[in-house]
Amino acid sequence: MEQFFKSWWFILSPLAGALSTLAFAPFDLSWLLLLTLAVAFYCWHLLPAKQAAISGWLFGMGLQCSGVSWIYYSLHVHGSAPAVFAILLIFLLCAYLSLYTGLAAWVVNRFLPDDARLRMLLFYPASWLLFEWLQGYVMTGFAWMQLGYSQIDSPLAGFAPLIGNHALSVLLGFSAGALVLLVLDNNLRRRTILLVSVLALWGVGALLKNTRWTEPSGEAIRVSIIQGNIAQKDKWKASMRQPTKKLYRDLSLQQKDVDLIVWPETAIPDYLGRVRLYLREIGLHLKQQDIDLLFGIFHRNAQGRLLNSVVSMDEGRVSGIYDKRHLVPLGEYIPLRFLIEFFNRFVKIPMSDIISGEDDQPLITAAGVPIGVSICFEEAFSRDVLKDLPQAAVLLNVSNDAWFEDSIEPHQHHAIARMRALETGRYMIRSTNTGITSFIDPQGRVVKQLPQFEVGVLKAEVQPMQGATPYVRWGDWLGVALSLLVLVVFAVKKVRKS
Question: d(Cα 48, Cα 84) in Å, to the nearest integer?
Fold first, then answer.
C-alpha cells in the first residue's frame, strides 16, 4: 500500500480533495472527510517536505475548485464576464486558497519530527487549524469550505459551542489520523487505545449536543420573513422597481399578530434616500399594529459613498442602521484599486465598489430585542458574528443567494448559518431573496424553512437568549494558541536534537 500511495499521490491528492466536497451541504456525507483526510495525511507522511506541500496544494485545489465552483454564476451569468475569464479567475482564487493547505503539510514535514503517530494525531490536525484560520484573515479572508461546517449534523457538532467551527478541524484531523494508524499499526494494544479514544471523542460530542449553554431571556417574539424571490437577472431592471416594492409592501401589510417583519438583503433595488415616502407609508400602517420592520437596502453616507445596510423601522420611522463591515472581494469591492478598470472591462456586477461600515456599530433593536446583524458573506466569519455577543439576544442574517442560482452555494451558506447559531447559543433568523430562508434554533437545528425559488412568508416564534457559550467568551484564540504551542514546542525539540 505504501508504494501505491508514493506512486500515485499526485492523482490521489486532488481526487481526495474533490470528494471532500461531498461531505458538505447539500450532500452531507460528513463521514467521507475521515477517509479523504486520511488519504491526504498518509500521502503527506510518505513524501519529502516539498512534495508534501504540492500534495497539500493539490488536495486544496480539488476541494476548492469543486466547492466554490458556484462563483461562475456570479461572474459569467450575472456579471457578464466571458466564460474563459470567469474560469480563469476561479482557478486563480482556488490556487491561492490551496496554498494554505500546501503550507499546512510543508510546515509539518519540514520543521517537525518524522514520527507517524505524532504527525497523524497532532501535527497535521494542528497545522490544518492554523492555516485554515489564516485563510480567513489574510487579505480580509475567504472563510468558505472550512472542514467544521461539514459536521453540523455529526456528533462532533457538540463541541462547536465550546471550541468553535475551526477547532472541529482538529477533531476531524485527529480521527482521520487515527484511522490511518488503525490500518497501519499491527500492535493490538495501541490499536485498541486509538479506537477507544476516537469512539470516546465522538461519544462525548454526541452527549454535548444535548447541553444548553444559554438560557431564555424574556418573552418570545413573533417574526415573519418575506421571501420575495426576485431573479438576479431582473433585480436591477428599472421596470422591476415598482413591482418589487409592491410585492414587499403587499406581503408585509398582510401580516397580522406578529412583532417583527424581515426583508432580505437589498430587498428594494433602490437607495434609502429615494424611497422614504414608500417606507413611511408602510411604517405608519405597521405602527398601528405595533409591528417593527427590518430590511436590507443600499444607502449613501455623508460623503456620497454607497453602503450595504440593514435598516430598522419602528413607529413609522427609521430607528437604526447597520452597515455591512466585511465586504466580498471582487463582488462588493476591488482589493487592489489599480485593478478596477481592468476588472470592470470584463465583469459588470452592480454595486461592485462600495465601502464597508465602521467596525464598532451599536446593535439594532427591533421588537424590543437587541439583534446581532450580519449581511450575506459576513456570517462565514465567526469573528464578525461574535462582535455583537453576548449583548445580542437574537442573530439575524440577510442574504441574496440569487447570484448563484440553483447551485450548492445556498446550501453551504445555510449550513454556515446553522453553525453560527450553534456556536453562539442563539436563534438565527435567516432572510434571503430566493432561499434558503429559515429559522434556526440555538442547537443549530432548522425549526422552519421555505422552499427555494418561491415567493413566500415564513412565520415562527423566536426566543431571545442570554448568556455566553464558552466559544463566545474565548473565540478561536484558544484553539489557535494551543495548536501553535504544539507545533512550536516540537519544532524546538527537533532543533535541539539535531
Answer: 35
Torsion of CA 73, 78, 84, 90, to 10 degrees: -50
**Range 331-347 average pLDDT:** 55
Domain that holds residue 458: 215-468
This prediction has a pTM of 0.94
Q: Are residues 137 and 253 in the same domain?
A: no
Is the model's pLDDT at 7 over the cut of 60?
Answer: yes
Instruction: Write out the three cell numbers for 377.
Output: 458573506
pLDDT at 155: 97
Same domain, 166 and 258: no
Same domain, yes or no, for 393 and 277?
Answer: yes
The set of catalytic residues is 265, 324, 376
Q: How far apart are CA 353 and CA 335, in angstroms?
A: 10
Q: For residues 479 and 464, state if they share a domain.
A: no
Q: Amino acid identity of 105?
A: A
Are residues 239 and 149 part of one domain? no
| Distance in angstroms (rounded) separating the CA atoms of residues 437 and 2 | 48
Residue 16, phi then psi, degrees to nearest 5: -65, -40
How far apart (Å, rounded) are the C-alpha atoms in residues 472 and 41? 31
Rounded Cα distance between 422 and 303, Å, is 39
Task: Return the C-alpha cell found at 231.
Answer: 431573479
Q: Are residues 32 and 171 in the same domain?
A: yes
Which amino acid would we find at residue 117?
R
